[in-house]
Task: inverse folding
DNA sequence: TCGATACCTGCACAGGTACGCAGCTATGCA
DNA sequence: TGCATAGCTGCGTACCTGTGCAGGTATCGA
């Protein structure tokens, strides 16, 4: 089976059959990008700390997150805006307090896996 | 239990007890950074494609990876250098061909999980 | 109504990172 | 000994992103 795109079909391969396997393993480009974006959201220590806190503690207010992580309020707010735009978290307004929680299942699994080896 | 560091102990909390829970959930800063770095390596589509290919297909040469991903050789080489420095992959020289494979178990689990919903 | 609190937004700056190009080293073959 | 191939490195550029500051909006209590 020839999975190599036409624009690079003339290039020499070392293990020709493995190249096709590799292309099949990579799969759809959009799928890869989706996962890369997902990982990207977890790639920042501050954001990861926010998510770990939200994951294990449940609904948390912005200023509480700021105290727990040592960030200042706008930084937390911006990080949450990013996560909210990506559909990872959601916030529920209660008076003047907004409590956030994780809603994306895939991200929740990653966080669970990440928090597993936490002493 | 007071887990809030002294430099921010005077700040007002919304749900005081949850702040302590959150700090406990976040855990050691080094641990968070380690995971953030791990996720960071998977956060680039090209790098993720390389790792997916290596994960499922096994030892692969640099130029084969270049063909499979559509990158040019130096780009693949640089990405692999990064991954090798992080201890995620390793390369074995066989004549003038170097075949890479994934060696980090945590990363392998993430890749497995990521490739699970691949049509 | 006045002030304080909780949160959000826009902007500008610094830092990091991916990418392409050119050139280098090393191995295998004739 | 030439010559092509496989892979690596350095450099420069463009881009993205995290962060802090200043200011704005909405809600609650006095």
Result:
């Amino acid at each position: 089976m020839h999975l190599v795109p036409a624009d690079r079909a003339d290039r020499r391969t070392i293990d020709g059959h493995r190249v096709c396997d590799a292309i099949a393993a990579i799969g759809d480009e959009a799928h890869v990008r989706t996962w890369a974006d997902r990982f990207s959201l977890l790639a920042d220590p501050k954001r990861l700390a926010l998510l770990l806190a939200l994951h294990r503690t449940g609904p948390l207010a912005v200023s509480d997150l700021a105290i727990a992580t040592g960030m200042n309020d706008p930084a937390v707010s911006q990080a949450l805006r990013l996560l909210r735009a990506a559909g990872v978290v959601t916030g529920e307004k209660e008076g003047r307090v907004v409590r956030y929680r994780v809603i994306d299942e895939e991200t929740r699994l990653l966080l669970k896996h990440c928090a597993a080896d936490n002493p």
Chain A touches chain B through 56 residues (CB under 8 Å). The two ends of chain A are 48 Å apart (CA to CA).
